[in-house]
Automatic annotation (TrEMBL), chain A:
<protein>
    <submittedName>
        <fullName>Uncharacterized protein</fullName>
    </submittedName>
</protein>
Automatic annotation (TrEMBL), chain B:
<protein>
    <submittedName>
        <fullName>Uncharacterized protein</fullName>
    </submittedName>
</protein>
């Protein structure tokens, strides 16, 4: 078993609220995005912030700290060239350069645990600075 | 089992690590990740890095080559006064560590512990581990879990041998082997990345996907810092510069501020030791003056480059011009080796090795189409040679020109040169200190039950 997978699934717990919020976002469309964080002491992934349906991508980027890591999911609604309404869910691993190596290591090795619980992610993005998760990149990937 | 380390007195080098950790019982060592720190060792082809898990830099950094004297030739009165105790192995004595290696001895040969990522001599590796544990870190290996960094394509046989030694000889309570590239990738917060690790003896490009090294796509070349050092040294020699090893002269102050250099003659110095000493100096010159050129090097455009002065240990000042740029460019264009007088021994490397950008592209192209885009945008630089000035910028520029249009090329490197140089060790240090990692250890009892081949299961 891969190291990261085992660490993430057996060494870290994902709080139920993570899955519940995600399901609400996916099925009921009540959230635009969710930000998750890890509490190292209790070895638990929890919900840090939930963005309302009316919020946009810039609200999500503004909720990510400059000097600490987070995970986030974003529900991207768009209209295709042939006028089709679509929705794609992005998973974002945010590890800014200014965060501590400990945080980077913790988030990188714990990702699988959360990812496994969140069923229905279309795309995954890793970002260490805002340019790597610009809105253009999101649009580009969803094409 | 309650053992304290206060008895282990000695001339302990700055031991700022609090004594709390090293006086716990074995049981706590195993399961209380925060209680007793694990020991992290990254034995590279050029340097060995060792220290306590949880710290942000290795406590001990010393050469991974050792001095060796055949026992029959040992001169009884020239040892023992130096701080490092020589170790007797069979019929030879090994000298390990920076200070022991810095002291010239008659008939002392310099031997490598690792070549091309493969251990050449386990006795030497043991002597290096001994030195790290007992003389640098002052720990009893029985009391600390050990995390060893290993090359991405380490063989099964070597991994089992390492496990056997750690459990049988050192009686370590637990062990973990972690791949260099994975440690670098995690330390930068990425489970997926392309790690370009340019160290002393080689440059390895390894794709990591979800914390796994994609072995089939790993690309390696023997061009590392040591080869660049040799290129610079030979090139300078061809221009009449003589690099005198420190042991071969004495500087006397004849008048205040005025020195006279007197040659010393030691006919029993081995060729390998002389070369080792010259390389130490040449490597310092390289680190001080070299920088990767912005565009491929050619003699004409660099012929009028301003000279940079460097003062050699013997007091002579040399001027270095185009070599400042030509040397690092060997990484990008190995065929340059052919133009350096005295490098004839490395012509096969010049002919077969590929440049760094080609290695990167080749490696990415061997990966699944779905992840190529992500790899292009997460290229991580690691290792001592990758800390070369302007190397990141140059690699990014070359890749932009040679990669597919749709790729968003991004080369990432820590701005902090310690972090870049020691990214593998630092990754191991933080990993071993995480609470969620503590379940991962390959314990001594598991070793006793399943044998050394179990390492393949525990540390895939």
């Amino acid at each position: 078993m891969a190291m990261a997978f085992k660490m993430a699934t057996a060494g870290m717990w994902v709080a139920d609220e993570c899955k519940n919020s995600f399901m609400e976002m996916k099925w009921k469309k009540v959230h635009r995005y969710i930000v998750f964080k890890i509490d190292e002491k209790s070895k638990l992934v929890t919900v840090d912030k939930v963005g309302g349906a009316g919020e946009g991508y810039s609200d999500l980027t503004a909720s990510l700290p400059d000097d600490d890591c987070r995970y986030a999911v974003f529900d991207f609604d768009f209209v295709t060239v042939d006028n089709c309404r679509k929705s794609k869910i992005f998973f974002i691993a945010w590890a800014p350069s200014a965060s501590k190596i400990r945080a980077k290591m913790l988030y990188a090795t714990s990702k699988d645990g959360l990812r496994r619980v969140l069923d229905g992610i279309h795309y995954e993005v890793q970002a260490t600075d805002p340019s790597e998760m610009g809105f253009d990149i999101i649009q580009d990937r969803a094409k | 089992m309650e053992k304290t380390h206060s008895k282990r007195n000695t001339q302990s080098p700055a031991r700022r690590h609090s004594p709390k950790s090293r006086s716990k019982t074995l049981r706590e060592t195993m399961y209380g990740g925060d209680e007793v720190s694990a020991i992290v060792v990254d034995l590279g082809s050029h340097t060995c890095k060792a220290g306590y898990a949880g710290e942000d830099a290795p406590k001990a950094v010393f050469p991974s080559v050792v001095g060796s004297i055949d026992q029959m030739e040992v001169d009884e009165n020239d040892n023992s006064e130096k701080n490092s105790e020589p170790k007797t192995k069979g019929k030879r004595k090994l000298y390990v560590g920076s200070s022991a290696m810095g002291y010239r001895r008659d008939h002392m040969e310099v031997l490598p512990s690792i070549k091309d990522g493969i251990v050449t001599d386990w006795d030497i590796v043991e002597s290096i581990w001994d030195h790290a544990f007992r003389e640098c870190l002052l720990v009893d290996p029985k009391e600390h879990p050990m995390l060893l960094a290993e090359p991405s394509s380490n063989t099964q046989q070597q991994r089992e041998k390492a496990a056997e030694l750690m459990f049988e000889k050192y009686q370590a309570p637990a062990l973990f082997l972690a791949k260099n590239a994975v440690l670098t990738s995690f330390a930068s917060g990425r489970a997926t990345s392309l790690v370009v690790d340019s160290g002393g003896g080689s440059t390895i490009v390894a794709p990591v996907h979800d914390g796994y090294v994609l072995q089939k796509a790993v690309s390696a070349s023997p061009i590392g810092g040591e080869l660049l050092t040799d290129c610079l040294m030979k090139s300078l020699e061809s221009k009449g510069v003589k690099i005198r090893p420190r042991y071969s002269f004495k500087r006397k102050e004849v008048r205040p501020g005025e020195f006279q250099t007197v040659d010393l003659d030691f006919p029993n110095t081995t060729e390998s030791y002389r070369l080792y000493c010259q390389r130490v100096i040449a490597s310092d010159i390289k680190e001080c003056v070299c920088r990767a050129p912005d565009t491929p090097y050619d003699d004409t455009s660099y012929s009028n480059i301003p000279m940079t002065a460097y003062e050699l240990p013997d007091g002579q000042t040399i001027e270095i011009g185009s070599d400042r740029f030509k040397t690092p460019d060997v990484l990008f264009n190995p065929s340059l080796i052919k133009t350096i007088p005295g490098m004839e021994g490395s012509l096969d490397i010049a002919a077969s090795a590929r440049g760094l950008p080609q290695m990167v592209i080749e490696s990415i192209n061997k990966c699944d189409v779905d992840i190529r885009r992500e790899l292009f945008s997460s290229i991580l630089l690691a290792g001592g040679t990758a800390s070369m000035q302007q190397l990141k910028e140059r690699l990014e520029k070359d890749l932009l020109e040679e990669s597919p249009q749709a790729a968003r090329v991004k080369v990432l490197a820590s701005g902090n040169s310690t972090e870049r140089r020691f990214s593998v060790w630092i990754g191991g240090s933080i990993l071993a200190s995480l609470g969620s990692f503590q379940q991962m250890w390959f314990s001594k009892s598991e070793y006793e039950e399943h044998g050394s081949s179990y390492i393949q299961r525990k540390c895939p």
